[in-house]
Write a structure and sequence with these properties.
With 158 residues, the chain is mainly beta.
Length: 158
């Protein structure tokens, strides 16, 4: 069989990102994790799709909510704990969760299992989006160049 060509794609051919833009001490809470930017690899511009692998004992992100971006996660393998303002729920393969923009309901996934978990993260790419982290004195917004800028809630550097 011939190798795949766009618009088809084998996710294994997408170079994974293993880092995090979070400043310490937050970065060490999420790493190691691996994200394959499938949306970017396919040339998508209106929404992003990441295939994420989360190691046992790690968090997908710091618990957060978006001002302008919708977000959906779909669990492919493993088990994750979804933490929201309402509490915790267990998600397993085939389950999903959605987070409407501006809802203020902070969320995060935690891998409390013994094996890596894989899931899809799908989100809109709103340039006006800002993110708040209610459990930590942290916020992020995009500057004029599109770079992420982390601050404390009062605007000072973390």
């Amino acid at each position: 069989m011939k190798p795949l060509t766009l618009p088809a794609l084998d996710p294994a051919t997408v170079t994974p990102r293993a880092g995090s833009g979070y400043p310490e001490p937050f970065r060490s809470r999420v790493l190691p994790r691996e994200k394959r930017a499938l949306g970017d690899a396919l040339g998508l511009t209106r929404f992003g799709v990441n295939l994420t692998t989360l190691a046992p004992g790690r968090e997908s992100s710091i618990r957060h909510h978006h001002s302008h971006e919708d977000e959906l996660v779909y669990v492919l393998e493993g088990e994750l704990v979804l933490r929201t303002d309402a509490g915790e729920q267990r998600l397993t393969a085939g389950m999903c969760a959605g987070f409407p923009a501006g809802s203020g309901d902070a969320h995060q996934l935690v891998n409390r299992g013994d094996a890596p978990a894989r899931f899809l993260e799908i989100g809109s790419r709103d340039p006006d989006d800002a993110v708040e982290y209610p459990d930590d004195d942290l916020a992020v917004h995009k500057d004029a160049t599109g770079a992420y800028v982390f601050t404390r809630r009062d605007g000072s550097s973390p």
